[in-house]
Amino acid sequence: MSTSTTDDHRSDEAAALDIDGVTVIGRPSDVEIISGISLSVPRGRILGLVGESGSGKTTLGLALLAHCKRATEITAGSIRIGTTDLLAGTAAEVRALRGRGVAYIPQSPASALNPALRLRTQLREALFESDDAAARVREVLREVALPDDDAFLDRYPHQLSGGQQQRVAIAMAFIGRPDLIVLDEPTTGLDVTTQAHVLATIRSMTRTYGTAGVYISHDMAVVADLADEIAVMYQGEVVERGPGSRLLSAPEHPYTMQLLRAVPLLKTDGGDHPADEAKTPVLTVRGLEAGYGRTNVLKDIDIEVAPGDCVALLGESGSGKTTLSRSIVGLHHQFGGEVVFDGAQLAPSSYRRTAEQRRRVQYIFQNPYEALNPRKRVRDLILQPYAHLTGGKVADPDSVVATALERAALPAAYGERFPEQLSGGERQRVCIARAIATKPDLLICDEITSALDVSVQAEIVELLRNLQNDGMALLFVTHNIALVSNIAQYVAILNSGRIVEYGPVGTVLSDPQHEYTRALIADTPDFELTFADSPMHKSIRAAEKEHTAVEGGTKRPE
Amino acid sequence: MSAAPVKSESAATGPAEPAAKPRRAGLFRTAWGFGRTKVGVVLTAAIVLIALFGPYISPHTDTALVAEPYVTSADGSPFGTDYLGRDVFSRFLYGGQILLLLAASAALFGTLAGTVLGIVAGYRRGWLDELIMRTNDILLAFPQLIAALLIMSIIGPQAWLIVVIIGVTHMPRVARVIREATLRIVEQDFVKSAEAIGVPRWKIMVREILPNVTSPLLVELGLRLTYSIGIVAVLGFLGMGLQPPDADWGLMINENRLAITVQPWAVALPVAAVAVLTIGANLITDGLSRASIGIDRGVEK
C-alpha cells in the first residue's frame, strides 16, 4: 500500500537530501546523461526513482554519492546532504561523508560483499567510530532481523542466502547512521518472498533512523508499495514527480501513463476460464524426474499443453523450472519419465530426435543479449536454423526472413542488421522470429521478458498472445505471478522441484489451495492502478465487461 | 547477390523506421587508432618489402664474389664484403625471403592446429578435453628451442622440419588461449540454441564459436609470428637453418661474427633487420590485443 501522508510536516532541519540542477555528462561525446535534475527528500521518507534502462537513474543514484562511473562527470548543480554541499567538498571530505552522510546499497549483494572477509570484519569496516563498534554491529544486525551471535558474525558472505546477503548490505549501509541512503534495485535478484522481507526491513529502518531513502527501480509495483513519493525518469530527466497515491491515480505526463499501462497486474478475480472443450494435448509430460549427477531437482512432474493454450510454469529461482523446460527441448539430458510430443516419446538429447520433432518444438532463451550470435546478421540468424530444420536449400530466403520478422512485428529491413544494432526488446523479437520461422507447434519461453523493461515486456506478451491465437501452444516459464495472470490459461506452480498446484489460472489464483501459492500471492507487491485500464488486459477484459477499471487492484487474500 | 532486393525494400520503407545504430568499429579499425600499431605496420612493411623484393633490386647475386673478404666498402658494394668476399648488401637483400616464409608458415600452422584443438577441447569438454590439454601440458614441458635443436640434430636440417617443429611447439600455447576464449562463448545461449535444433557439432564450432574467438586468434597469430621469426633466425645462426652458400640472415650473423670489429656491416644489417621486424610485429600484436580487450568484453548489459 502506498502511504499517502499528505501533511507537509517537516522537521526543524532542512530536507535530508536537496539536489538542484544536477547534470552529468559522458566523455568524450559530452552527451548529457542526466540533465538539470532537482529533487529533495525529507527525513524518514522514501523517494522512488522509476525509469527504464538507460533513463539515467543509476547515474543519478551514484551522483548522490558524488561518484561518477568511468568517463562521466558531474558538470553542474549542487547536492546537499543535510547541511553539507557534497560537490563543493574536497575528495577527502566527500570520502568522510560516504557511509556517514550517505550510504549506498547496490543491486547485487553477492558481488557487493567481499567474499574473503568475515561478516564481523566487513560490518566494522563500514563503521567509523571505533568505540563500542562490536555493540553497534550487533545492534544493527538485530534491526535487520539477522542473528547477532558470534557464530553468525564469523560467517563468510557465501554462507548466506541471497536475502540474508542483501540484509547484511542494508545493515552495512545503516551502521553509520547516514542521513541519506541510496538503494539501487536492491531486490531485483531476489524471490518475491525474500523481496517482501527485504522491503519491510528497508521501510522500518528508514522510519526508525529518520533516514531519507532514494529507491531506484524499474519495478513500478515495488516502488508503489514502498515509496512515499515517486519520480519518473525518462531520457535523463525527471518528467513527473509527486506523492505515490497521486501519481498512480492521476498521472499527468504521457510517459508515466505509458509506463503504468505496461505493468502487468496481478488478477486474482477469477480471470478468464478456458473453454471446457477437450483438446488433444500436443505435449504430455508424465512422472518426469530430472537431476544433475546424484541430485534430483524435479520429481513427479505432470503437465499437458494443448494447441492454442498457454501453460505457465511459475516458480522461484532454484525451483527447477529451467531444468524442466530444457529437458523438454532436449538441452538437459538427465531425466526420466514420459515426455510425449504429438504421440511420440521425445529422446533426452535433441540430437537423437527427428528433424521434424526439433522443428516443431522451439525454445526462446531468457537473455536476448546472449541468445544471438553477435557475428551474424539478423537475416542469417533466422535463415540458418530454418535451412537446417527444413533440410537443405531454402527456395525463397527473402520471403522467409520477411515473414518471420513481420510476425515478430519487426520491419523487414532489420534483416541486414547485426544484434549489437538492436535494443533488448528488438533482440528478443529476433529470437522469437527465429523460433517461429519454422512454424513450430510448441514454443517454450524461458523467462523471456525478465531481462526487458516493462513496456517492452507488454509488447512481447501481446506478440505471444497473437501467436497463441494462431493456434500455437506455449509453455511460459516465469517467476512473475502477475504476468501469469495476464497471459496463461493454465498454471503449474513449481516449488522445490514439485508441482504443488496445477489448474486453470483463474481458479488457482482466486482460490489458491496450497499454502505456498497463497504465500506467493500475498508477497507480491500490491499495485493499485486506478486511473485507467491497462491495455494489457483489455483483450481479456473485453469478455467480462462487468469488471471495471478498479478491479485492477489486488486484494491480499487474508 | 540475394541482398539486392532487401536493400531496395529498405530504401522504400526507409524513412518510416528508426535509423540503425552504427556498428562498433571492428578489431582492425580500433587497433589502427593506436599510434603503436601504425609504427609497427611501417616497420614490418619495410622489412617485408626488403625481404620480398630485395633479390630483384640487388646489385649482385648472393653468391657472386665481388671483392676481397672483409672490406668495409668497395665499388658497387656500399656495405662491403663478407668473409668470402661476397657483397654484404646483396646477401642481405636475398637473405630475408626464406626466413619470412619459414616463420610465417610455422606461425600459421601452429595457430591453425592450436585453434582447432582449443575449440574442440573447450566445446566438447570431458575426456577429450583432458586428453588434448594434458598432451598439451607434456608438449609445453619442452623448451621450444631445445626441442627444435634436439630433433633437428637427429633428422638433420630441413626447411619443412623447421616449420613442423616450430608449429608443433606453438600449438599447445595457442590451444590454451583459444580454449579459454571458447569456454566463455560456449556458456552463451546462442550455442545452446543451435544445439536445441540439432545443428551438427562441427558446424556449431565453425559457425557459432570460431567467428567469436577471432580477436584472441589474431593476437595469438601475431605473437606466434614474432616468436617464429626469432626462432628461425636463431636456428639459422646455429647452423640448423639454411646451409651455406645460401643467403640467410641468421647464417650471415654466424658467418661474419668473428670479424665484427673489422667489418661490422656484415653482422649489423641482418641483426637490425630481425630486430626491426620483431619489434614491428610486436607493436602490431600489442595494438590488436589492446583493441580486443575493448571489444571482447562479451555481452553488454
3D architecture notes:
The complex is a heterodimer of chains A (558) and B (301). Chain A has 2 domains: 17-108 and 177-262, P-loop containing nucleotide triphosphate hydrolases (Rossmann fold, 3-Layer(aba) Sandwich), CATH 3.40.50; 283-552, Rossmann fold, CATH 3.40.50.300. Helix content of chain A is 34%, strand content 23%. Chain A is built from 21 helices and 20 strands. In chain A, the strands form 4 sheets. Chain A has a 6-stranded mixed beta sheet with strand order 6-7-8-3-9-10, sandwiched between helices. In chain A, strands 16-17-18-13-19-20 form a 6-stranded mixed beta sheet, sandwiched between helices. Residues 1-13 and 530-558 of chain A have low confidence and may be disordered. By secondary structure, chain B is mainly α. Chain B has a domain at 96-246: MetI-like fold (Orthogonal Bundle), CATH 1.10.3720.10. In chain B, 70% of the residues lie in helices and 0% in strands. Chain B contains 13 helices and no strands. Chain B has helices at residues 3-13, 27-32, 35-57, 88-94, 96-124, 126-140, 144-155, 159-186, 189-196, 201-209, 214-237, 249-256, 265-295. The longest helix of chain B is centred in the last third of the chain and has 31 residues, at 265-295. Chain B starts with a helix and ends in a 6-residue tail after the last helix. The A-B interface holds A 329-331, 350-351, 353, 355, 358-359, 362-363, 365-367, 369-376, 379, 384-385, 388-389, 397-398, 401-402, 411-413, 415-418, 420-422, 434 and B 2-3, 5-7, 9-10, 13-14, 16-17, 20-24, 188-190, 192-199, 207-208, 211-212, 299-301.
